[in-house]
């Protein structure tokens, strides 16, 4: 048991050794074998630089840029770089946020608060849009209009049909997280502009690599602020800009569009609080680390990293195409490889890949879409990609030998019947109580069979089960 508040303080060296031991139980953040959660450019010295930059500004508070102009200067520089990369012009403004979810919540808030006369504001998204839009809608009490897709991309005609007088924002992805495909941004921008509605492009995931892929000749549609009708765009620096976690950028096409994003409050005895983003006190650490990362890699460096990523994507996609039992589910046109089953149980396959050191992300069936396996590919994968094909073939053979998971039909269970006691007994029964998550096929099969609301309840219960203080 680790005690965060021991009776007497513990020497620093011991604490660092404890932290290293704890980290030893994590998935590998570096080395090109983890295909979700982490973004690794495999550049020597970059981590040390970002760490040092973080340390210089860790105690600086973004709450008041007049007290800490260093942070204001770095934020403006980051916003300027993003605007340049993403088709902005002299009118473009933006904010540095803590991540993609915060950028999307703020895009929705700005759109909602621009229309105080709309009593029941609505947000139109394609069904492939990131779950963070649902979170934004939930937090901000905005109704969500989820529009079915055509193929794997948003359908501009259906999106247009979903726009009503109460629509405050239309949004689409460049690219979508699940499949890595870019929505037809120009067509959706046009219909949004025609109806006088703001249009947000969620480029949180791919916004820092798509421009470079396009420069390298990839056949990808225009998706940024240069497209008429795009009013805001978000890009996460902690994804393909390879900055440490905690930094995203939300750009607006003009200051007027950004204005309702701010929160201001002077009606109390303390300082007047003026916040562009959700947090008030904000550490300068992640911002300084992102600033150092961008300046060190530079434009030419990002182009090179995009070329390496593109080569890795091709190698992985070729491996999938050449292997029986699996197939490419979406064209591998960006930085995602998404595969579906052609006879193999994908959840068993994911376990078999993990046993061979490849950590992928299983995705559950949704509407008409089957379960898939998602691979976020970063530049570090260039070095490991060649050894994926034999391991994939081996893992498919092992999964076929094990056969599909056969779970008995779930007893009828409603979300409200999911109690802490039920979760505890399920966790023990499925062998998750001891914290070993290496064999997840049975769990994933059960979750895949559960309707979304039940899956939400089960996983919320499980997270709550995990998130308890250690017993003394
Ligand atoms: C397209 C897209 N939007 C938004 C997000 C949310 O970003 P974050 O996890 O930084 O909040 C993600 C995360 O993967 C994403 O892929």
Please outline the helices and strands.
Elements lengths: L11 H12 L22 H12 L11 H17 L7 E5 L2 H14 L8 E5 L4 H10 L2 E5 L8 H7 L4 E7 L11 H10 L3 E5 L7 H6 L16 E5 L11 E5 L2 H4 L4 E3 L7 E3 L9 H38 L3 E3 L7 E6 L4 H10 L5 E3 L8 E5 L11 H15 L17 H10 L11 H9 L2 H15 L6
Parallel strand pairs: 2-3, 2-4, 4-5, 5-6
Antiparallel strand pairs: 1-7, 6-7, 8-9, 10-11, 11-13, 12-13
The site of pyridoxal-5'-phosphate has 13 residues, from α4.
Q: Any overview of this molecule?
A:
- The chain is globular and about 60 Å long.
- It has helices spanning 12-23, 46-57, 69-85, 100-113, 131-140, 156-162, 185-194, 210-215, 255-258, 285-322, 346-355, 388-402, 420-429, 441-449, 452-466; strands at 93-97, 122-126, 143-147, 167-173, 198-202, 232-236, 248-252, 263-265, 273-275, 326-328, 336-341, 361-363, 372-376.
- It is α/β, with parallel strands linked by helices and 472 residues long.
- Bound molecules: pyridoxal-5'-phosphate.
- Residues 99-101, 104, 130, 132, 173, 177, 202, 204-205, 236, 248 line the site of pyridoxal-5'-phosphate.
- Rg over alpha carbons: 23 Å
**How much helical structure, as a percent, in the residues?**
40-55%
Largest beta sheet, briefly?
7 strands, mixed
* SSE pattern: HHHEHEHEHEHEHEEHEEHEEHEEHHHH
Q: State which percent range the strand residues make up.
A: 5-15%
Number of helices: 15
Strand ordering within the main sheet: 1-7-6-5-4-2-3
Bound molecules: pyridoxal-5'-phosphate
Taken from the alpha-carbon principal axes, the silhouette is globular
Span from first to last CA? 8 Å
What structural class do helix, strand and pairing data support? alpha/beta
The tally of strands reads: 13
Spans of at least 5 consecutive residues whose pLDDT stays below 50 are: none
Mean pLDDT equals 96
């Amino acid at each position: 048991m680790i005690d965060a508040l021991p009776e007497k303080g513990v020497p620093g060296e011991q604490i660092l050794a404890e932290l290293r031991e704890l980290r030893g139980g994590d998935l590998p953040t570096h080395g090109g074998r983890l295909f979700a959660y982490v973004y690794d450019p495999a550049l020597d010295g970059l981590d040390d630089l970002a760490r040092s930059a973080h340390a210089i500004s860790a105690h600086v508070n973004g709450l008041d840029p007049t007290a800490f102009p260093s942070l204001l200067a770095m934020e403006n520089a980051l916003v300027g770089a993003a605007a340049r990369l993403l088709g902005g012009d002299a009118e473009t403004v933006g904010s540095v946020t803590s991540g993609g979810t915060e950028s999307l919540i703020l895009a929705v808030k700005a759109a909602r608060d621009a229309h105080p006369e709309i009593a029941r504001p609505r947000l139109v998204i394609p069904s492939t849009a990131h779950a963070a839009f649902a979170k934004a809608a939930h937090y901000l009490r905005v109704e969500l209009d989820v529009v079915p897709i055509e193929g794997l991309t948003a359908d501009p005609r259906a999106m247009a049909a979903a726009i009503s007088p109460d629509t405050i924002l239309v949004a689409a992805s460049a690219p979508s997280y699940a499949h890595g495909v870019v929505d037809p941004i120009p067509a959706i921008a046009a219909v949004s502009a025609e109806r006088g509605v703001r249009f947000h492009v969620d480029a949180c995931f791919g916004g820092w690599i798509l421009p470079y892929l396009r420069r390298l000749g990839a056949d990808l549609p225009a998706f940024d602020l240069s497209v008429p009708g795009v009013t805001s765009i978000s890009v996460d620096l902690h994804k393909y800009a390879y900055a440490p976690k905690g930094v995203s950028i939300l750009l607006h096409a003009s200051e007027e569009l950004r204005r309702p994003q701010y929160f201001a409050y002077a009606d109390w005895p303390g300082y007047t609080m003026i916040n562009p983003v959700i947090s008030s006190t904000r550490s300068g650490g992640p911002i300084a680390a992102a600033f150092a990362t961008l300046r060190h890699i530079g434009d030419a460096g990002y182009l090179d990293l995009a070329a390496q990523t593109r080569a890795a994507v091709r190698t992985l996609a070729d491996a999938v195409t050449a292997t029986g039992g699996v197939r490419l589910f979406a064209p591998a046109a960006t930085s995602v490889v998404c595969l579906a089953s052609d006879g193999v149980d994908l959840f068993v396959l994911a376990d078999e890949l993990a046993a061979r050191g490849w950590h992928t992300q299983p995705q559950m069936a949704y509407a008409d879409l089957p379960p898939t396996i998602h691979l976020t590919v970063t530049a570090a994968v260039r070095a490991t990609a060649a050894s994926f094909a034999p391991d994939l073939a081996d893992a498919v053979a092992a999964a076929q030998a094990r056969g599909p998971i056969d779970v008995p039909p779930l007893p009828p269970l409603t979300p409200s019947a999911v109690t802490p006691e039920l979760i505890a007994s399920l966790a023990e029964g499925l062998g998750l109580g001891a914290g070993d998550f290496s064999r997840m096929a049975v769990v994933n099969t059960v979750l895949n069979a559960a309707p979304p609301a039940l899956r939400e309840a089960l996983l919320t219960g499980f997270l709550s089960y995990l998130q308890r203080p250690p017993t003394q």
